[in-house]
Design a protein that fits this description.
The complex is a heterotetramer, with two copies of chain A (about 500 residues) and two copies of chain B (about 425 residues). By secondary structure, chain A is α/β, with parallel strands linked by helices. Chain A has helices at about 15-20, 40-45, 60-70, 95-100, 105, 120-135, 145-165, 180-190, 205-210, 235-245, 335-375, 395, 405-410, 440-460, 460-465, 480-485, 495, and strands spanning about 5-10, 140, 170-175, 190-195, 215-225, 250-255, 270-275, 295, 310-315, 315-320, 390, 420, 430. Chain A has a seven-stranded mixed sheet with strand order 2-8-7-6-5-3-4, with helices on both faces. In chain A, strands 11-13-12 form a three-stranded antiparallel sheet. In chain A, strands 9-10 form a two-stranded antiparallel sheet. In chain B, helix 4 packs parallel to helix 10 (about 315-350), helix 5 (about 120-135) crosses helix 6 (about 150-160) and helix 10 crosses helix 12. The longest helix of chain B has about 35 residues, at about 315-350. The chains are: A alpha/beta (about 500), B alpha/beta (about 425). The interface of B and C includes residues 36 and 69 of B. The structure holds pyridoxal-5'-phosphate (2 copies). One pyridoxal-5'-phosphate binds near residues 146 and 179 of chain C.
Chain lengths: ~500, ~425, ~500, ~425
């Protein structure tokens, strides 16, 4: 039975361009306190544009209604559980939003004198230190803007070290369970990708690894816990194998929410890793970003970190640009500072013991779901789960219902779906990550919904296959979207207007 | 719950971890503090900043008024705490505003398609160059020296490891614009992309058409970068470019010590298959209603893995929303009026100092300091609670006597007069 | 056709008490920097309570979800037009929320030294001056917390003046079209109420007034424009009649949105009036308050205004308590200061010309609606409309459909209803006030909805009588609520738990 | 639109107004300014305030930490920009939180029903007295002199014009509590209500039971007022009262120069028909789902007009929501811990100065200044960026040598030590 949601009316809304009327405005500027300048005279006629065709013209109330109405079409953490595996959709504390807007921080210009930037620099320094302690690594750069950007930075560091040692090598090894950004990153850094098959426990196959690690291999990129939510129990061994051949161990830290305070990558052989502050450290996803992907390294890689590096000088913190071995910049300025503020606020709020408790709760929640859903869904890999659990749609597929259908049906039950069809080594994966911030009531409701859906698959598979039924937008035709891409609004032509 | 899992202690949750990897001590971090102490701590850090100073810094990070509506909208949990809109049926809010964003970027830049955002302007430019490499199947990139120095550094980092040699072309020492002759000489048949910026790092409006002709003549693509999005309210859009890549920080983002900002890439329809980043497209739902969804994801890492156009996954969606709200609030009239105010302020200031270049400029320009170094001028200004300009010697030894000054609608005449007095 | 809304899922939510689990918490306090005190020792055993039975125990994420879910069940100005007649539901600019939270204002303590309160006092002084100019009155008190409170203050002023003149008198005259607060106020101030019948034009009947004004009459309370949205064209005459007999003219200023910049009560004979800052001056209603009801008076009433009065002293603004004729305080401190800040921000944003333009647009919008709906709904009083228009359900009542049903059906069309059944002199009133902040598109959608409903009444009256059909909560049984009042949650007893 | 109305000029909209009433000039107000200038103007006013000062002022307006969640919730347009929930089907959000508010007020006060809010504590007390008059059909009110002086003033204003004589009873000069004997002597058979406050204006916890006995013995009702809602987290609820009327400012409202705050009235079920203000009740919708609506409105002005229990219409709904969020965030444990912190801080401070009274106090107390006037002590403190206490001579000539000091969880030890040094 669906008990978590009811049907209610929801406001429609046109696109801004369709809502516009000539002359409407939502702004007012102060009067100029200097003489106006004739743009055509100052810039030359050819450099001055005509009016921007189609650009919005709405009043302030129309603007706020537009975005309020749009917002009501979204599901979010603030509505309920968001069990997207690999995404760590935990609660985003609102105090973090407040501190990120503190004037002296939000309005700090990246080029303002360092003497006037000590507050901002201290935020960064304190975060770097905390992340080093949490990961057990020696140095941290905060420059990368997201996980994938961190990966690229990390692999470039590997490359730079190996190059300095004489040969950047050719290949990056990547388990077949890896996230797509891993191989894409390797390619972006100029490496060939070699996939490593997982063993039947869903783990890194040590024998296969041993065989694959040649003098051509620059590094192994491994996610730990891996994308099945399983801790790579042979991680120390893997590191040894790699190190023996002069290769490095890169860890994708997207799943650090399973480890904080419990185990540190720096203690189990990792040479370089990235973190996703927008996962483990609670900064909000914002519908797709901004994130932040700090990279933590062992000291051997430290000389190569992007410029500038934060250092403590005579007059306080400063940016050090004199880093001859650095790979260079990976982005302008110093990183997604506003996201760093939020992540540090989170770390300060939880503190050392609190962070560990969060990890414990995250792992407990995942295991609770696993235990309750195991009778109803196929568990392809029975290894112990950490912060997430991955089922397959094997049983439901027999009725023609796939993981994507189950996910859509979950929407009718008032939940955001789990991650669908990833990792790809599981046929029809249901990847469920509850995070520590869900309470038992919400977990139980989720479990009940999943069990109920499993029942519906038996009783009425069509119901599930055509879900969702209760949303203002029913199942979306993604195929047509890709086949005949319409990527922007255009003013209606005579013909189109009649449809 | 522990009992439901057949466990007695939470330690058992981790009993399968090899002993060697377990952390046997507490993290060396202080224990948690309350919300009030957190606010206090960060307020103290903020107070160590530049509150109360006027500032004439630009150079890729601009000070513009932020309409109150922006934070009102992005503070809504429905936007703030949603993930990437993979489940279209419960993400139409996010999908719709991204579609609007893509449209507005096209309207502003004169391009046909734009993506859902990149990390920032600098990575957008590097990705644009890589995109040109894929499109032309050539490898070389020529970048103008008056492109933002940090953008060029990022491009160099990308280039170095992707087998994409990057060559710089010079600027005209009189006008501050690209030296077209030098550019012509640097672009060859192996060149994939010519990268210029307009307004360039010196604030000067470039001759995009001329650069396009040079690039196209050799079969290269022209990438036009921008760092000051407000300029697009007034300047002719770079419609001769093949790819436009820029930074949207000016659209409602406070400087925030360098981030988060949002990059954008826009291009022609024919190039979309090589476009990096997410795209939202219009479609229908099963009942025939208009709907939006992420599309053309066969370009992306989660489908194509090592063959993807980029490794980007998380982008800057909420920042793009801020920019969208900003563009909505200002709208057609407002963006122009805003740009005109910037123009007027910068020209007022320029009229009181000694501009270095003769090219037409928007809200930034290079000024010579007379009788003292730029650093000394800045120091004198600091004492008057004014942060001056960016000394250029660090990036351009030949401009060691010059500052890059920026004036926006927020600059006050009285503060500009202070600058004039010290330069 | 319903085009403004679609059906979507909406999260259910239990009451906080039902959601609680022992030990959950959403707060953390800083550690005490002084020794803890044993409460039982310090206060005595008998003075210390046991734990608060049933009080909420939820986590932070549960708290935010609770209120987010609740919020999604509300309609608001930010969703769309809210044409409640007499309520002036205009857009509430968000900058006003921001300025009301500025630290030095929001954290100003009412008893802090005046030397440290000049900013707050200046806000009040500037607002008083602006309201005096807008109303054409001589002095303003900002102390009353809402319209009704302003009314009471105003009538007490009348009483105090008359008392000083020797006789407080016995009666207040009130037109039958008046808002309920007017007679309730008169009674609260110790006056008897005498109703004055409106003339057939819906206006004050001058002859009736003339007859009613005796030496017993303290004042006439009149709303202008009145609750039919009609300007009392004989107001000057009415004032003369009253003044001739030593009575005063009180104006309920709830409808000032029709007059600002166009006509001033002080110029047409009003002696005392209140304003609703939460109507005319855009401060948000917040689901029922807070408001602010400043009272503006002619100089003859000034000595009686509540203490303290704001005055300009040698060292700036100060509170003057030395007011021997004052009626005394009507509330603690100085009024709803935070609301005053918002109202002043609104006045500064619009400025003189802007305020008049807003009035013009408000009146135009109401007349536009009137013109478009006149063919479909009965207009009981054909006098010219100002900022609102009042129809009756006369035509629809023939089909058994009443104004309340039409209102509920409007909900299905995506609008908040108009004001239902008020003023009472209209049988089955539909009181529609669009305000100036609605654009033509929203007005047209509203008009279309109203016309469509008129059609439904003919075709399918039952559909209208059982509306709303699309809300998560269908028509609410208000009769049972009043008959068997349940005014608080109680822990379920054994029997109740099974229902 | 003008044309649709058959008009040509907007002036015609007003052509039916008598010429004599029309304003023939522009309002004498400056023209409109931008959002940015508005923010700047109010920030300048804020800067003229007491930023950076510690404060030991209480006396009906308290400084407490405000959980961030409060503004997060009340900033949602769905709550902020909704009207009174007359249309229940699209107002269940507001109705539900008011129902929760009513419940929590009952839980805190030990009463059976509570209304949806009153303007503030002072008007709530006056309305409670008027309610007692209606319930007892008697007219006299006895109010203790240690009730907040401004509350007593408001009661006096109400009383004066409603034929409700108000008499004051004294306090015990040693304990600071009500003088029970004096109270006993003032209460007679014509007395409708005895009004006391606990903690009283001096911060001292009253003997509610004893006062109740005195009142009830003469057939009067006991109204217990409170100004410091946080005390309810720790103190025995005034369950012997007939009506509890108080101020909720402490629950998440900044002092805001005196308002908006929110008052509350709670009482026994049998008295609800005489209760002023809105009430939300539970019921069902036509499909049988639980629903809430405004109820018992036959008490109210819009139905009963001159026979209503009060003229109140607009109340303080959003402020009540703030209080509700505050109570939710702190919850069962937190409200107690918060109260205990207040107790500890005030007792720390009291331990360093010379308390005037011996009665048990919560977070406020009266202290004598030694060797200087309270005003002089305050002046000395101001120079140390501390705002001291409220000098009591203005309200109580016999306490001209005393200050009312308040310490809350926000008070810092170091600042308390400064106060101790100056007193
Ligand atoms: C395992 C894993 N690695 C890498 C990433 C990429 O991180 P980002 O999206 O921040 O670039 C993700 C994010 O989805 C992930 O789940
Ligand atoms: C005409 C009229 N008078 C008085 C009032 C009472 O104002 P308030 O609700 O602010 O007390 C109202 C409010 O609804 C009204 O419409």
């Amino acid at each position: 039975m669906i008990t978590k949601v009811r049907s209610h009316l929801s406001q429609n809304e046109l696109l801004l361009f369709e809502r516009s009327s000539p002359g409407k405005r939502a702004y007012q500027l102060p009067e100029l306190d200097v003489p106006a300048v004739d743009a055509r005279e100052a810039l030359g006629n050819a450099n001055v544009r005509e009016e921007i065709p189609g650009f919005p013209e709405v009043s302030e109330v129309e603007a706020i209604r537009h975005f309020t109405r749009l917002s009501s079409w979204n599901y979010s953490i603030d509505h309920g559980m968001y069990p997207l595996g690999s995404c760590t959709m935990k609660y985003n504390p609102r105090v973090n939003e407040l501190v990120a807007r503190i004037k002296g921080l939000a309005w700090a210009h990246p080029y303002q004198p360092e003497s006037l930037s000590q507050g901002a620099l201290q935020v960064m320094a304190r975060l770097e230190a905390a992340l080093a302690e949490i990961t057990g690594m020696d140095a941290v750069t905060l420059q990368p803007a997201a996980g994938a950007h961190g990966e690229l930075t990390g692999i470039l560091l590997v490359r730079a070290l190996l190059q300095q040692r004489g040969n950047p090598r050719k290949k990056i090894l990547i388990p077949d369970s890896a996230h797509g950004t891993n191989p894409a990153t390797a390619a972006s850094a100029g490496y060939a990708v070699e996939n490593i098959r997982s063993c039947e426990k869903g783990l890194l196959d040590v024998a296969a690894l041993e065989a694959a690690v040649t003098e051509d291999v620059a590094a192994l990129m491994v996610t730990n816990p891996n994308t099945l939510g399983v801790f790579e129990e042979n991680i120390v061994k893997a590191a040894e194998i790699l190190h023996r051949k002069g290769a490095l161990l890169y860890m994708d830290g997207a799943n650090m929410n399973a480890l904080v305070g419990v185990a540190r990558p720096g203690d189990f052989g990792v040479d370089v890793m990235h973190l996703n502050l927008h996962k483990t450290f609670s900064t909000p996803h914002g519908g797709g970003g901004p994130g932040s992907g700090p990279v933590a390294v062992k000291s051997v890689l430290e000389p190569f970190l992007p410029v500038p590096r934060l250092t403590r000088g005579k007059h306080g913190w400063r940016h050090d640009y004199n880093r001859p071995d650095s790979i260079g910049r990976v982005r302008a300025f110093y990183g997604n500072f506003g996201v760093l503020v939020r992540a540090l606020a989170y770390i300060l709020a939880y503190g050392g013991p609190g962070l560990r408790n969060a990890t414990v709760d995250a792992v407990l929640n995942a295991n609770y779901i696993r235990r309750k859903l195991e009778p109803h869904y196929d568990l392809p890999f029975p290894s112990p789960s950490m912060h997430e659990v991955v089922f397959s749609d094997d049983r439901q597929a027999a009725k023609g219902v796939r993981t994507g259908d189950l996910a859509k049906r979950l929407i009718d039950y008032g939940f955001h779906p789990y991650t669908v069809s990833f990792p790809t080594i599981v046929h029809g994966a249901l990847m469920i990550e509850p995070t520590e911030t869900e309470g038992k009531a919400e977990l139980d409701a989720f479990i009940e919904a999943m069990i109920s859906i499993a029942g519906e698959v038996e009783a009425d598979p069509e119901l599930v296959k055509t879900a969702p039924h209760s949303t203002r937008t029913s199942r979306v035709d993604e195929v047509t979207a890709a086949r005949r891409p319409i990527l922007r609004w255009k003013p209606p032509t005579r013909d189109a207007a009649s449809t | 719950m522990l009992r439901d899992c057949g466990l007695e202690t939470t330690a058992q949750l981790f009993s399968h971890l090899p002993e060697a990897v377990k952390l046997k001590r507490d993290l060396d971090l202080p224990k948690g503090i309350s919300e009030y102490e957190i606010v206090e701590w960060f307020e103290a850090r903020g107070a160590e900043g530049a509150n109360g100073y006027a500032s004439f810094l630009g150079a890729g990070a601009y000070r513009h008024f932020r309409p109150v509506l922006v934070d009102t909208v992005v503070s809504r949990g429905e936007f703030l705490t949603a993930y990437t809109p993979y489940q279209a049926e419960i993400s139409q809010g996010t999908l719709t505003h991204i579609f609007e964003f893509q449209t507005m970027i096209c309207q502003l830049t004169g391009m046909e398609v734009a993506n859902a955002s990149m990390y920032d302007g600098s990575t957008a430019v590097a990705e644009a160059a890589a995109m040109a490499v894929r499109l032309t199947r050539k490898g070389r990139v020529v970048v103008a020296r008056n492109v933002h120095p940090e953008y060029r550094e990022v491009l160099a980092t990308f280039g170095k490891y992707q087998g994409m040699p990057v060559v710089e072309s010079d600027y005209d020492p009189d006008t501050g614009r690209i030296d077209l002759q030098d550019l012509e000489s640097k672009v060859d048949g192996l060149t994939a992309a010519v990268v210029i910026q307009s307004p360039n790092f010196f604030g000067i409006v470039e001759d995009v058409k001329a650069a396009a002709e040079i690039a196209h003549r050799k079969g290269a693509l022209l990438v036009v970068a921008f760092t000051e999005a407000v300029s697009l309210g007034l300047l002719e859009p770079p419609a001769d470019a093949d790819i436009v890549a820029g930074e949207l920080q000016s659209f409602a983002l406070p400087p925030s010590y360098g981030g988060p900002y949002a990059g954008t890439i826009a291009t022609r329809e024919k190039h979309i298959r090589q476009m990096p980043g997410r795209l939202v497209g219009e479609t229908r739902d099963s009942r025939g209603n208009r709907a939006f969804c992420l599309t053309l994801s066969t370009r992306e890492q989660h489908i194509r893995r090592e063959k993807a156009t980029s490794n980007i996954c998380t982008n800057q969606a909420l920042i793009a929303l801020m920019a969208t709200v900003f563009m909505t609030v200002y709208g057609k009239q407002g963006l122009r009026e805003l740009a005109e105010q910037n123009l007027a302020k910068a020209h007022y200031l320029a009229g009181k100092v000694t501009p270095r270049f003769s090219g037409p400029f928007f809200n930034e320009f290079v000024a010579r300091t007379i009788g003292k170094s730029p650093e000394a001028a800045n120091q004198a200004l600091l004492e008057k609670k004014v942060i001056g300009g960016v000394p250029l010697g660090k990036y351009y030894p030949e401009l060691a006597d010059s500052l890059l000054l920026c004036a926006t609608e927020m600059s006050r005449r009285a503060d500009m007069d202070k600058v004039a007095n010290e330069l």
